[in-house]
Model the fold of this input.
Amino acid sequence: MRDQDFLRFPDLASRGIGGAVVYANDESFAQRENLITPAAPQFDESEFGHKGKVYDGWETRRRRSPGHDWAIVRLGAPGVVHGVVVDTSWFTGNYPPEISVEAAGLDGYPSPADLAEAEWTTLVPRSPVAGDTANRFAVADTHRYTHVRLSIHPDGGVARLRVHGEAITDPRLLVTGGLDLAALENGGRITGCSNEFYSAPTNIISPGLPRSMGEGWENARRRDGGNDWVELGLAGCGEVRLLELDTSYFLYNAPGAARVRGCDETVSDPADEGSWFSVLERTDLLPDTRHRFVVPDPRPTTRLHVDVFPDGGLARVRAHGRLTDEGHRALWLRWLNALPRAQARTVLDGLGVPGDAAEALLAARPVRKVGELPDRLAGVVGP
Done:
């Protein structure tokens, strides 16, 4: 992956998908919560408050003692981090000269005290940054993390922290049977897009209802007689039983029609046009409407290709269904293999895996087949 390629992955830390800044050792000048605001940082040169100049970011006091400042972010969607952006926009004389970023994976809902005792892994070593700049750092770590810690050396201000990566859901939480196979928080992702001139396609798989047209995917006006499209990778191989194509807030720029196709890349090559099958035939769409379509003949699929005709915006795409048995097993194995060792040991204890078997499993990762798991765990994951 090239250094800038990670920007195509969603921001796992964003408040828009449930991220939170759970602790900062200092926020004297500007509050920590600003770090994960989805919108770009703003600046009004005339705005001053009781504490001084008002900044849209996190800013600590001038440090008069050794050490550094830090803030901890709980990811809205735990996952594998491919890169981070430490954005110092508008901080010109008060930005930190250096930063570092670490990550941890913990079970449950740890308190700041728990986090202080956690095992942290360095994602970005202590590195110089520039002021008023979106400083970008690629990450090669392949583990799944739940929290990141931004350290600034020694003090100063940061406008935004973006943590780009792939979400990996906790399969222990998938107990209701059906789920949105396309949802970002369940491990869905965007795998391709024809055009994202106005807004990013990741918006269509984000949590919750849209609140404006800007929270959807909108392409440019097409003049060449073709059509636009977006492709989604599902959380795992599953059968889509109910599709939702939401054009909320798109009043005069919704697509005239849409079509959805599927492909199971576990048995065929998505690059082969013949591998794709119809999930929803070309169907007219209305503006500002949540369209729901029952899929008459659900088939196993790992990807969806949504065509819009000829162009126009979608607010959300939902693909409600169930994982296949193989998809369920694959999701469990990916999750278990990606957990940091300390969290994996906690998880295995909670699942009743004996100590010797747990240690043997940790040493054997990555595990490729359910048959390689201890008997106690294989029974949970499924045959």
